[in-house]
Write the structure tokens for this entry.
Amino acid sequence: MTARQKENRRRTLLRSAVQLFFFLLMPGAFTAGFAGVKYIFTQVGSGSVIEMNGFLKVLLMLLLFTVFFGRFFCGYLCAFGSLGDALYALFGFIRKKLFKKKKPSAFPPKLMRILQKLKYVNLAVIALFCVLGLFGKLAGWSVWDVFSRLTALKGVDARYLPGAILLAVLVLCMMWQSRFFCQVLCPMGALFALLPVLPYGALKRDAAHCIPKCNACERQCPVSLKLSEDGRRNGECIGCEKCAGICPKQNISGMIPNPYLSVLIRSAVFFAAGCGLGLLR
């Protein structure tokens, strides 16, 4: 194993440990933030005053965190995203060991770039349904409600059967395509992608030292991105930093030169904020 492969493995282990930590202790961050989105549009539709509540505080914290650190929440801290990574890794292991297929499963990149736009449509539709007062009538169809109940160790009765079926379909898609939900359907991901991010919050690639036609970062990226040379942020980047781990020339850098310290600092900031907002299970 080369030094670069060892470095990539250490980064992967750190990310997996952080994902597991937040999946076990703060699985409700995503659903609480999404509830804040629904609350705002529901209040707008009913002509009611938008008052500060727990869900809105979580949403504001997630938005502010993203402005400062990019979509680090998506890449490391979101329970639904971590579930997708675990399912994709499990299916990859099964394909490799049982079916001897080393090439990762995936839909064509061009197709995925088109499908990535659907999450913005999904966000708009959800907002419209909330404004019109129709979202509440879809009770039982929400995959987020089903996921929230499962992570809270609650049962899923017949009322949630449609949502459970949709979640099962999503699970199959997430097993085949890395970060399928994050790329295609996540309304929070769409919202985060539209936010401005402070310059230091974006990864930067030093293209002058890249190996010609390498493209290792693009091949490793769950959303098939190639980083810009000037650090300009692409909203689709989920902040997983797999590109930095795989780069053979170590040309990709973030806000803090030490990648391990960078991950731990951002994780600690979110953990402290989450504890303050009551997200700790």
Remarks:
- The first helix runs from residue 3 to 25.
- The CA atoms of residues 22 and 152 lie 14 Å apart.
- The mean pLDDT is 89.
